[in-house]
Design a protein that fits this description.
Pfam families: FecR (PF04773), FecR_C (PF16344). InterPro entries: FecR (IPR006860), FecR_C (IPR032508), Ferrdict_sens_TM (IPR012373). 25% of the residues lie in helices and 34% in strands. It is an alpha+beta fold. The protein folds into three domains: 72 residues, no CATH class; 189 residues, Jelly Rolls; 73 residues, Phage tail protein beta-alpha-beta fold (3-Layer(bab) Sandwich). The chain has a 19-stranded mixed β-sheet that branches. A three-stranded mixed β-sheet has the order 23-26-25. α1 crosses α3. The longest helix is centred in the N-terminal third of the chain and has 17 residues. The radius of gyration is 24 Å and the shape is globular.
Length: 388
């Protein structure tokens, strides 16, 4: 779309003279989603044109800039990093000279070439006999010694709608999908339930459901759209707890390297049960249950679901997330090790949205530009410190 000259000028001031603007004025301006989109597009054009004095463009450059913004179609990175993060960080990190640091950032030092596993659609299927099948974006039929009719679709992933046992004796036979670091995969279970699997996730499930319930076992993070069947409740077994549903959409985050298990309900209804003390919590849409495996404490909050389920749509959404929590997500996706050279930076807070297909170096560069955090990449290790 076309933007008015006043909005383009104000966006330019935000990108180059943020410290001179009134925080309230910026916050009110940013409530318009079109303004956020303008900032996104303007910053991208600014990078491409390599304009040093962005606030003092000549008329010819301004005309070219407007045309570039109007022609640009794909969104790369929302500039909530540039504004919302800067607003938060003024209070959290006492940033006064963000723009100067932006201009003086040493890109050659920050963006080091590394060898990492490329993120993408990939996983490993482990059949009932232990046989392993590498999964990717390809269409094929998969059969094992006990199971047949498993279809792998290049777009929708693994599908068990037509799967059955070679010799069906009525007993449940389980398969497992293991998603590695930097991986993502989709699964359709025998009952039609759809599952999106995040990186570093294992899910164990029956080839066909038998008995009075539908049970799966999860380690990691997954988003479920459960097919409704009132006669057979759907149960997700976790480490020390479980989630029971009839038909709903929800996200579970239960990584072994974190003490908290997060259950976030998008629609429908679920019941979270702590196996230790049998405590039960009923969730309504928009609510999240957080259970701490160390303290045994369960807490329930109303949350913005986007930040907890956007990963399945290819985005990271961070809302006042600490640097430590953010880096754990990047670690699972980009196959990196994180070393903090200054412990205090772990508590720094960020707010922004990034494309999960974005190169890690670009992500780190953007974070560094809007904060007092510095990154140094050596091979697969990212060293994090406070800017001096």
């Amino acid at each position: 779309m076309r933007y008015c000259d006043e909005d383009i000028e104000f966006a330019g001031q935000i990108l180059t003279n943020r410290e001179e603007l009134d925080d309230t004025a910026v916050e009110l301006w940013m409530k318009d989603k079109e303004h956020v989109r303008l900032l996104d597009e303007l910053a991208t054009v600014r990078e491409r044109l390599a304009v040093e004095e962005f606030g003092h463009l000549e008329m010819e450059e301004l005309t070219r800039l407007k045309q570039s913004v109007a022609d640009r179609r794909s969104r790369r990175m929302t500039l909530r990093w540039s504004v919302a993060a800067s607003i938060v960080l003024i209070a959290a990190l006492f940033i006064g000279r963000m723009v100067d640091e932006w201009r003086n950032l040493d890109e050659e030092r920050l963006i080091a070439q590394t060898e990492r596993i490329a993120p993408g659609v990939k996983a490993e299927l482990i059949l009932a006999t232990g046989e392993k099948v590498c999964l990717g974006q390809k269409s094929e039929m998969i059969a094992g010694k006990k199971e047949i009719g498993i279809r792998n679709d290049s777009l929708t992933g693994l599908d068990y709608a037509m799967a059955k046992m070679q010799n069906d004796d009525g007993e449940a036979v389980f398969n497992m999908i293991r998603v590695p670091i930097g991986g993502f995969y989709q699964l359709t279970l025998a009952d039609g339930t759809r599952v999106w699997l995040n990186s570093m996730t294992d899910i164990r499930y029956p080839v066909t459901f038998t008995g009075e319930s539908r049970e799966v076992y999860l380690k990691g993070e997954a988003y479920f759209e459960v097919s409704k069947d009132t006669s057979k409740p759907f149960i997700v077994r976790l480490n020390g707890s479980k989630v029971t549903v009839l038909g709903t959409s929800f996200n579970i985050k239960a990584y072994e390297d974190e003490n908290n298990i997060y259950t976030s309900l998008v629609q429908g209804a679920v019941r979270f049960t702590n196996d230790g003390n049998r405590e039960q919590v009923e969730l309504k849409p928009g609510m999240q249950c957080i259970w701490n495996s160390v303290s045994g404490k369960t807490e329930v909050y109303e949350v913005d679901m986007e930040q907890f389920v956007s990963w399945k749509d290819g985005r990271f959404v961070f809302e006042l997330i600490t640097l430590d929590a953010m880096m754990r997500q990047l670690k699972r996706w980009y196959d990196i090790d994180v070393v903090y050279q200054d412990e205090k930076v772990k508590t720094y807070e960020f707010w922004g949205t990034i494309d999960r297909n974005m190169d890690l170096n670009k992500v780190l560069s953007i974070v560094a530009k809007v904060s007092k955090v510095a990154f140094e990449v050596q091979g697969k290790t990212v060293f994090v410190s406070a800017k001096k």
